[in-house]
Amino acid sequence: VQLQESGPGLVQPSQTLSLTCTVSGASITTDYYWSWIRQPPGKGLEWMGAIGYTGSVYYNPSLKRRASISRDNPKNTLYLQMNNLNPEDTAVYYCNVKRYPSDNGYWGQGTQVTVSS
């Protein structure tokens, strides 16, 4: 399983972030649970939200509905959009898949996002 996150790197405050997670070796429509997780500098991991193999989507309420997770089934690709960014959103963003409920999960290498003017 390989997950590859990609994104703009630098985003200005109040702008919208768009990230892509390209997947190989797993299927976004049959593998159990796909998450976006981030880690701000000097802080712990924060679960942002997830999409299940059925297409059901779940979000961390602390993001106050700024995040949106979607997928492109034919492309086997996962997306994260988050609007109204602020410097506190600076973090390394990861996608993660649990192929089964008891799976330890697979991680991408992460992509750095810096929110700054």
Contiguous uncertain segments of 5+ residues: none
| Strands, total number | 11
> Structural class, from helix and strand content?
mainly beta
Radius of gyration: 13 Å
> What overall geometry do the principal axes of the alpha carbons give?
globular
Q: Which series of helices and strands comes N to C?
A: EEEEEEEEEEE
Mean pLDDT: 96
Number of helices: 0
Share of residues in strands: over 45%
State the separation between the terminal residues, measured CA to CA. 36 Å
User: What percentage of residues falls in helices of 4 or more residues?
Assistant: under 10%
Keywords:
single chain, 117 residues, mainly beta, four-stranded antiparallel β-sheet, 11 strands, 0% helix
Helices and strands, with pairings:
Layout: E1 2-6, E2 10-11, E3 17-24, E4 33-39, E5 46-52, E6 57-59, E7 67-72, E8 77-82, E9 91-98, E10 106-107, E11 111-115
Parallel strand pairs: 2-11
Antiparallel strand pairs: 1-3, 3-8, 4-5, 4-9, 5-6, 7-8, 9-10, 9-11
